Amino acid sequence: MEKPKVVLGVSGGIAAYKACELLRRLTESGHDVRVVPTEASLHFVGAATWSALSGHPVSTEVWNDVHEVPHVRIGQHADLVVVAPATADLLARAAHGLADDLLTNTLLTARCPVVFAPAMHTEMWEHPATRENVATLRRRGAVVIEPAVGRLTGVDTGKGRLPDPGEIFEVCRRVLARGPVAPDLAGRHVVISAGGTREPLDPVRYLGNRSSGKQGYALARTAVARGARVTLVEANTGLPDPSGADIVRVGTATQLREAVLKAAADADVVVMAAAVADFRPAEYAAGKIKKKDGQEPAPIALVRNPDILAEVAGRRARPEQIVVGFAAETDNVLANGREKLRRKGCDLLVVNEVGERRTFGAEENEAVVLAADGGETTVPFGPKEALADTVWDLVSPRLA
Ligand code: C5P
Predict the structure, then answer these.
(1) Which of 31, 83, 175, 228 is the most buried (most CB within 10 A)?
(2) What is residue 359's predicted lDDT score, i.e. its pLDDT?
(3) pTM of the predicted protein model
(4) What's residue 71's pLDDT?
(5) What CATH code is assigned to 5-178?
(6) CATH numeric code, 189-399
(7) Considering only CA atoms, which residue is closest to atom 21 of ligand 1?
(8) Distance between CA atoms of 397 and 387, rounded to whole angstroms?
(9) Would you call 209 a catalytic residue per the annotation?
């Protein structure tokens, strides 16, 4: 079998050194990779490194090997083009269709999926020019993954870091697996809640649940690969950040509600995959609750938490917004699911059967997705990413 052909574009940012690791991962997992650096990027990583690691000649401009017509051939034959790091300048040139070097020529001739992994200082990322260029590229079907937040060059910290090469590799793997189809969530903003809330009782104790957050993270990763801008509201998962998602960390149901409602204001889709505590302790003890000799502990009074899913579905920050809920049931799974779908007022409800060793914390899941319009989709036992892709398969036509 022929190896999938990947073009790795590298533009002139300090994060170019991280692209060496991305290249290694791509070649070691059986991809044939052509590296196309920009002239400026060679200040950071030299052509010899790219050539040795990829096993192919490297050129920055269209005037070498002209008889092979590289300015069209490389893009035409690619199964995937990934640009990492993509600087503000490269994004601008790509958005405007310039073709002043080999990489921009390649971007114009490529008919395969294109992934940009931007890296730059926060000010450049937030500049209206960059915002518009990114929006243009996304509208045209490119996957532009959100930069990570953290240490930048020099003393600065903020949004603009190139995500971990392993995470960019995962995005590439998913995009390649989908084949030469347009990313159906391109230009969409999706909000996903994941994990389980913890409701504090005193400074050291809380009421919690067994949710690991893995299903929510699988939804975030697959949505990024399908082109969405993703806001992931995570509660107590301890999982590594998926690349390309904006992460909002919360602890309690009250915090989760605030974060979800805020992010939902301009969202096309809201998916409530988090296990939100239905109750919280009525009172929070400022000091650790002590045991007293010869005395039984006092009962813990609980109060209800607001139902965030029902609130989001009832409010619909935008009339065409799609709202997806999850339901973990232990018995009468389908009947309870239908009744819950109606009660919560959401468009889709992913219903699964749970028990101590089923679903919570596991790598696999099986479920039935119920739709408010009567549809019912069975998802067989398999990886949580497969269930996530089924959810997006059902959401996507409803957005159109
Ligand atoms: O009612 P139940 O907890 O079974 O519903 C589960 C669904 O409702 C999940 O999508 C969960 O995220 C959401 N939920 C919520 N707010 C709550 C409880 C659950 O949004 N207080």
Answers:
(1) 228
(2) 59
(3) 0.92
(4) 75
(5) 3.40.50.1950
(6) 3.40.50.10300
(7) 307
(8) 17
(9) yes
